[in-house]
Amino acid sequence: MSQGSLLFRLACGILPAIAAWGQQYTISTVAGNQPLGAGYGGDNDSATADQLDGPVAIAVDSKGNLYIADSLNHRVRKVSGGIITTIAGTGVAGYTGDGAAATAADLNTPSGVAVDSAGNVYISDTKNFVIRKVATSGIITTYAGNEGLGPGYGGDNNPPNSAGAQFDTPLGLAFDPSGNLYIADASTNTGTSGNLIRKISADGSLLTTAVGETGGTLQGLNYPVSLAIDPTGTYMYIADIGNKRIARYQFQTQTLTTFVGNGSSGYSPDGTVGVGTMLNDAAGVAVDAFGNVEISDTVNDLIRVVTPNGVITTPHGAMSTIAGHVQAGGRLIPGYSGDGGPATSGQLYSPKGLFIDHSGNIYVADTGNNVVRILQPSYPTIQSGGIGNAFSYKTQVSPGAWAVVYGTGFSSGISTPNAPYPNTAGGVSVMVNSAAAPLYYVSPTQVDFQVPWETGLGTASIAVTVNGYASNTASVTVVSAGPGLYPTIENVDYSFNSASNPVVAGGTILAYLTGSGPVSVAQTDGKPAQAASAGLVNVTSTCTATLGSATAQVPFCGLVSGTVGLVQANITVPTGLGTGTYPLTVTINGQASNTATVNVK
């Protein structure tokens, strides 16, 4: 088969590969009222009717309650059932109230919040230089630090509320799976205070430095403002804003590396990878259940995502935008728009804190708009009757064949990987029973895949997974052979057969199909056809053809070398056919294909 033919290029995947993040989100506001601006409008009201002032950090508990560090209102707010209340703070900047109701206590610019498994709430009381704890009883105490010492560094290897315990600028908070609490303790002081990640043991008995310059395990942070720990407790991701990066700390090896960011402020378009990426004061980071890392690209007014790919030398995939709108020419314009629609069509203004709940919803402290937004994943859905042969579209498939699945929510763009075809493209995968299928085309509404050769006959279960989120499961019939005929027929010189370029009676035409069933040489899923020593891979079932009512000889029916799942049938046009247009049908193992048109002279 000529490498100049269109079919060869399609079959080999010689097409531009476009990186696309699969998961799509819908954006809406869950707290704050942007038109009213910054302020405090009271409690016990609809969360979207009330005002916030500088929300910078958020957390969600196991019951789905939302907690907001409403920093310039000097309060921590709670949203439950759509109603907003204050759980800590009076609205007056100060340091009072330990041992009594948290709602009667003064805070000073709270800038971090976290909730433990028991429902206790922890607050970075930033300008009081301490960590406060609100128990489930509503009583507030100072959990770590000593307000009277002012900003600084001290108290390691002692209880967190010891007389010498000291923080400089406590900001982001995060728990690991074992219940240890980590604190981003930032500082503009490059001397004794340093820039640290502090740790409080799960039993609350010991304060140490986990990462950082002063007394820590290593150096290299410059004003860490938020952090997140993956669900396995393997990595901690740090918004290291002064170094203009997201850093990654591996707990087991105690190593700190750059995950994303090249040390310069700016904007990098989607598809940029790792340390080649520019961020612009990225002040928020979160990790979802599948290890994808979400980032508030704050001054760029975007939420980005990076998917780790497990390759040691390149520990992350390309960066993609999941919320915020990039104008034509790469212009970034802050604003407040898009609620109820795709998150990539909405606008944000200086987003900071992030939190991901157990359902995969991403909460965003949209600080400049004085609101909290939610990005709700649009789960992939396979449409009814949406699986079939990729050439005939008949709702049956065969082992080794090209197949198609139609639905919604598969991707935010188009991916066209090259052969050998991967099992994941743009975060999208297709499972056929329990086997991952090779993919060669992904779009928002369509995924083309190869049915694994080992798929059993009968009924197969198909599911599309997008960045870990699975679609409904659909069934499709699997037959030994179910040929789907490509509509374009070639003449023997590889030119397209047409009314102006017909084949002569007695000549040869080339038909291409998929779904032949068993072949003479075992094949590997997703890899170009592997030939025997004779150089040909034949279809083992009987292959016949008809042109109109006339039977045509098929001297060769087998896989096209260098392609995946593509069968070529060399068909001899009966000599007795007159000039005209004829329907072509190819039959394999008794199963007839769809028809294609052949022009004869």
TL;DR?
By secondary structure, the protein is mainly beta. The protein contains one helix and 45 strands. Helices cover 1% and strands 40% of the residues.
What does this structure look like?
This protein has 601 residues and is mainly β. The strands form nine sheets. Strands 36, 37, 38, 39, 40, 41, 42, 43, 44 and 45 form a ten-stranded antiparallel sheet that branches. Strands 27, 29, 30, 33, 34 and 35 form a six-stranded mixed sheet that branches. It has a five-stranded antiparallel sheet with strand order 2-6-5-4-3, with no helix packed on it. A hairpin with a 4-residue loop joins strand 16 (235-240) and strand 17 (245-250). The longest helix is centred in the first third of the chain and has 7 residues, at 6-12. The radius of gyration is 30 Å and the shape is elongated. The two termini are 24 Å apart.
Overall mean pLDDT stands at 91
The computed structural class is mainly beta
Fraction of helical residues:
under 10%
In DSSP terms, counting alpha (H) and pi (I) runs of 4 or more, how many helices? 1
Separation of termini? 24 Å
Low-confidence stretches: 1-20, 310-315
Proportion of beta-strand residues:
35-45%
| Cα-based radius of gyration, to the nearest Å | 30 Å
Shape: elongated
Largest sheet: 10 strands, antiparallel
Number of extended strands: 45
Strand and helix map with partners:
Layout: H1 6-12, E1 24-31, E2 45-46, E3 55-60, E4 66-70, E5 75-80, E6 83-88, E7 110-115, E8 121-125, E9 130-134, E10 140-144, E11 169-175, E12 181-186, E13 196-200, E14 207-212, E15 224-229, E16 235-240, E17 245-250, E18 255-260, E19 284-287, E20 293-297, E21 302-306, E22 319-323, E23 351-356, E24 362-366, E25 371-378, E26 381-389, E27 396-397, E28 402-408, E29 428-432, E30 435-436, E31 439-442, E32 446-450, E33 458-466, E34 469-470, E35 474-478, E36 484-485, E37 490-491, E38 508-514, E39 537-538, E40 543-547, E41 550-559, E42 567-572, E43 580-588, E44 591-592, E45 596-600
Parallel strand pairs: 27-35
Antiparallel strand pairs: 1-25, 2-6, 3-4, 4-5, 5-6, 7-8, 8-9, 9-10, 11-12, 12-13, 13-14, 15-16, 16-17, 17-18, 19-20, 20-21, 21-22, 23-24, 24-25, 26-28, 28-32, 29-30, 29-33, 31-32, 33-34, 33-35, 36-38, 37-38, 38-42, 39-41, 40-41, 40-43, 41-42, 43-44, 43-45
